[in-house]
Specification:
Blueprint lengths: L16 H52 L3 E6 L4 E11 L5 E5 L9 E2 L4 E8 L2 E2 H6 L7 E5 L8 E7 L10 E8 L4 E5 L8
Antiparallel strand pairs: 1-2, 1-7, 2-3, 2-4, 5-6, 5-8, 8-9, 9-10
Amino acid sequence: MALMKTGFTHSKPGFSLLELMIALMIIGIVGMVVAPNFSNRVPRYQRTEFVDKLNAIVHQAVVSALETGHVHKVIFNLDKRTISVHEKTEQVDGDGKDLFNPIVLHAVGKGYAWPEHFSFKQFFVQGVDEIAQHMAGNILEDIWFFIVPEGMAQEVIINIVDTHDTGRSLDGHELSLVLNPLRVHFEEHEQFRSPGA
């Protein structure tokens, strides 16, 4: 039997150099489009996680205050970047000040530490910027606000800069958290807020 010529030539399986270069160029273009979108989502995710954790902590403090009938305070330690909740006891210290004991937070354990790149700029409690008071020479160990047994809180505004998110400003992304004293829930705003505004 004679083999017939078909006009087709058989080549080795694989890709040519040109095909590989085109594929790599397409992958590079897709990467240039997707990478910035992904990197912008990480800071936004961390801010959302922070607000969610903070609201979970505050919610548990409200529930505990309602159940026990005791005043609670939500404490922010700016040096350690932690949030904890303490319940007022019936005892006082040597100076006659009320003693508070920490409570275990179900959502976050004993406390929660926020990311290092969150820079607290202002922390208003009942209209007073506690951070500015510290700058005036007063010693600032912790900043806190109270939740009363009726389930209400003091007025609080926290202004933060996320220094990792420089999409809008070289200084970072502004975030303002405003505590609704009746609902005892932090609402997130894109620009700094101040009391009475």
